[in-house]
Amino acid sequence: MHAVIPYVVAGLLFALGVYGVLRRRNAILVLMAVELMLNAVNLILVAADATIKSALDGVQPEAWAYPVPEPRAGAIFALFVIVLAAAEVGVGLAIILQYYRLRRAVVLDEIALHDHEDDDEIADNKSARVTG
Amino acid sequence: MTVADALMLALGAIAVGSGVYVVTSAHLVRAGFYLVVSLGAVAGLYLVLGAELVAWVQILVYVGAVVVLLLFAVMLTRAPIGPSKDLDRPVAPAALIGGGVGLGLTVLLVDAFRWTEYELPPPGTGRRVGEQIFGAWVLPFEVLSILLLAALVGAIVLSRPDIGARPDPSAAAVPDLPPPGPVDESAEVKARLERIAARQAAARERMRAAESPDPGEAPPLEKTREDVLKEQAHDVVFRAGDARPKLGVPEIAELSEGGKSDPRVIEGTSRENPERALPRGEDRALPRGNDRALPRAPEKDDEET
């Protein structure tokens, strides 16, 4: 097995995720791109998990490097990252849906971060909703 | 080039290709489904790399839960079916940064690993993963369970406006401000509500008029020509007219005489006798000359208006 293949795939997936986060305006699509990035990190973890045994051949065993008899914790980390991603998606979608209920929009560019009581913008959204 | 290499190349190509569609597709729902394909290919990569449990958890949690959740959100936010125009920002900075990240990572990883051959480990079992999780990593595991609980409670609190709603100080200063709900402001909705209220008032008025003991305006007179036509159309559509009892229609007798193919007709009992022909005159005396049964109860007219 050539370890460079999964690593390069993971790098490309991460780049795609970065591109999607920067390019997309819809919040749900941004979450999808974040999922791609998390998967790239998982893939790197699992690939390192698969290759570390043969990569560590001939290395002096040290106590800090072996918390468990078999030094393969990448799969565990990948599981933890999957759990974190599930929690992130749950809270992120709750925020997106709440924002959609308030403003009828999921476009990230138009979210006002500084002043929440901006009546002009609310009126603009209202008129846009009526016309459109 | 071994079988594992070929498999990883194919799965990686599928993952990256559908990932490109995820970030470039103009259809929201299609982006979600391409995400399914991409995550499935990554799960296949996990299988090739010997992490079985991670692969199945990936399919269970990502494809089964996360993507379904994302598609739910797509539909709850009334995403249009078909391509959406204003989905993207200008391409230049995103392509610059994304391409830079991809190029940098690829060069770094290729330079680090070259074309070195690594020995694939024996496929991991759930037993090893379980021993590690509940042995060396039990504290992070418990912390993660608390984090999941916190995320669950947080999502519920966020999506329910009646929990944790604080009285707004500015709203207390101006108490008669209308709530910024989506339903109760647009002129269209208001006009529709007014129309419904007017219709209900008219119906109530008619009910009162029907219940009033005034004999001058008897309810049978309210049956207009449109109602009769509607009933006839209803009968034509649903064939209910055949089941209805008919008064003095001569075709019944003729049918029972000529229709010997019908096994339910008992012969000899359905002759036309002169006593039956009598009510025809009464039938003509009914209002507006409908050849149908007696007019219905007056309450049903309210539904039709």
TrEMBL record, chain A:
Gene Ontology molecular function terms on file: NADH dehydrogenase (quinone) (non-electrogenic) activity
Gene3D superfamilies in alphabetical order: 1.10.287.3510
Location(s), subcellular: Cell membrane; Membrane
UniProt xrefs under InterPro entries: NADH_UbQ_OxRdtase_chain4L/K (IPR001133), NUOK/Mnh_C1-like (IPR039428)
Membrane topology type: Multi-pass membrane protein
Listed EC numbers: 7.1.1.-
Name of one Pfam family that matches: Oxidored_q2
Function: NDH-1 shuttles electrons from NADH, via FMN and iron-sulfur (Fe-S) centers, to quinones in the respiratory chain. The immediate electron acceptor for the enzyme in this species is believed to be a menaquinone. Couples the redox reaction to proton translocation (for every two electrons transferred, four hydrogen ions are translocated across the cytoplasmic membrane), and thus conserves the redox energy in a proton gradient.
Subunit comment: NDH-1 is composed of 14 different subunits. Subunits NuoA, H, J, K, L, M, N constitute the membrane sector of the complex.
Family from the record: Belongs to the complex I subunit 4L family.
Identification of the protein by name: NADH-quinone oxidoreductase subunit K
